[in-house]
């Protein structure tokens, strides 16, 4: 199975540096250019889809609907397992304020945000969903539209990276992750769009295969 994983459009809260989590925010004016860039990259790489999944949050759902129309996929299947981390009471707070008042922020994956969840809990639900999809859609290509936290979580899990060190790697809005799955395992991984922080920071080299993990 092949999973193409992308991030939702940029929102106004993203641009303002605010925690969004399970909330939502209107798109930032430049959102269409980034979506069009991803569309073009996918076509240049000859990618087509058997199904499209998305987080059930508005920013991911609406982004997925744009690709569904472009690639002729009838429906977008939305699922709460693909949601961003639940920041609970910290939703809408400035990221700089959160980092100052909660030193565990994006350092301790087991820290449970007040009224919310931990990065580890979020990662677990996303990984379980990816693994289930791999069984349900064997030999197919699936597009998933989700969130930066989800992307970091699945990259660190399937590539065998230390999660705590993975929490601050940037995930651009032009990111396109390319996962080749077999059951609950990722056989290899590549990026077709703007490089993630995992690549820019020298954590991984592309293409990344499981033989790399064993070295």
Q: What does this protein structure show overall?
A:
- This protein has a single domain (2-214), classed as Phosphoglycerate mutase-like (Rossmann fold).
- Helix 5 packs across helix 6 (148-158).
- The longest helix is centred in the middle third of the chain and has 18 residues, at 119-136.
- The chain is an alpha/beta fold.
- Strand 2, helix 3 (58-71) and strand 3 form a beta-alpha-beta unit.
- The chain is globular, with a radius of gyration of 16 Å.
- It is built from nine helices and seven strands.
Q: Report strand %.
A: 15-25%
Using only C-alpha atoms, the radius of gyration works out to 16 Å
- Say how many strands there are: 7
- What can be said about the biggest beta sheet? 7 strands, mixed
Cross-sheet strand order for the largest sheet? 3-2-4-1-5-6-7
CATH superfamily: Phosphoglycerate mutase-like
What is the overall number of helices?
9
CATH class: Alpha Beta
CATH architect. name? 3-Layer(aba) Sandwich
CATH topology group: Rossmann fold
Mean of pLDDT: 94
Order of helices and strands: EHHEHEHHEHHEEHEH
Number of domains: 1
Look at the helices and sheets and give the structural class: alpha/beta
Gross morphology is globular
State the helicity in percent bands. Answer: 25-40%
Q: Low-confidence stretches at least 5 residues in length (pLDDT < 50)?
A: none
Report the span from N to C terminus: 25 Å
List keywords for this structure.
215 residues, 7 strands, seven-stranded mixed beta sheet, alpha/beta, Rossmann fold, 9 helices
Give the helices and strands, then pairings.
Elements: E1 2-7, H1 12-16, H2 31-44, E2 51-55, H3 58-71, E3 76-79, H4 95-101, H5 119-136, E4 141-146, H6 148-158, H7 163-166, E5 176-182, E6 185-191, H8 197-200, E7 208-209, H9 210-214
Parallel strand pairs: 1-4, 2-3, 2-4
Antiparallel strand pairs: 1-5, 5-6, 6-7
């Amino acid at each position: 199975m092949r999973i193409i994983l992308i991030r939702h459009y940029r929102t106004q809260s993203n641009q303002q540096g605010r925690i969004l989590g399970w909330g939502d925010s209107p798109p930032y004016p430049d959102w269409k250019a980034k979506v069009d860039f991803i569309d073009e990259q996918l076509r240049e790489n000859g990618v087509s889809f058997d199904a499209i999944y998305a987080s059930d949050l508005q920013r991911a759902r609406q982004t997925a609907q744009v690709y569904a129309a472009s690639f002729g996929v009838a429906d977008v299947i939305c699922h709460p397992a693909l949601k961003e981390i639940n920041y609970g009471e910290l939703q809408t707070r400035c990221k700089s304020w959160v980092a100052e008042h909660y030193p565990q922020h994006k350092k301790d994956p087991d820290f449970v945000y007040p009224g919310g969840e931990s990065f580890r809990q979020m990662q677990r639900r996303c990984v379980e969903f990816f693994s289930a999809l791999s069984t349900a859609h064997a030999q197919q290509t699936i597009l998933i539209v989700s969130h930066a936290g989800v992307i970091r979580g699945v990259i660190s899990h399937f590539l065998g990276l230390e999660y705590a060190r993975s929490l601050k790697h940037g995930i651009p809005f032009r990111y396109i992750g390319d996962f080749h799955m077999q059951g609950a395992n990722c056989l290899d991984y590549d990026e077709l769009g703007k490089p993630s922080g995992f690549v820019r920071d020298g954590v991984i080299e592309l293409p990344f295969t499981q033989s790399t993990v064993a070295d």
